[in-house]
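HUMAN: Would you supply a protein with fold tokens?

ASSISTANT:
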Amino acid sequence: MQATRSASASSAPTVRFEKVFAPPGTVVEATSRTRCRVFSFEDYTEPQPQVPAKHTTIGQLADKWEQDDQRRAALAEGRQWVADTFYSEDGDTVRTLRLRKGWSQARLATELGTSQSHVARIERGTENLTIETCRKLSRTLGIDLNTLDQALRHQEAITQAQQK
């Protein structure tokens, strides 16, 4: 048997078997048999690193800091700095509008009544938004629908340019 050390690679089959597919307890006369190759990759995948005891994630730390007024203000100021320093050339996008308010994706998601991953897809320009979501987003960010439309179009253009 040939072994591989990558979960995304193929290897020679480890087992060949024949099986008739039917509901359990059903007696069937096989007219054809399905041949399957079974590959086992579990032995070759990289083990996940052990998380240290008393480990705190960045998200947990940020959530804790959001509870303190001084630290929340510092985080908001930091997000505004990120918008001005790293995304100033992007112009108005949902991401820059959010960062200028000093909000995290999680905060915007809470305000919208959605998930952080949904906000991330909106900011990447890969989400097709409903008019109701657009209304909520414009109200939450304090902008009109025309400004939101321009921000979404701008984000789509940036995403398409990055994919080339």
Notes: The chain has two domains: 1-45, 58-163.
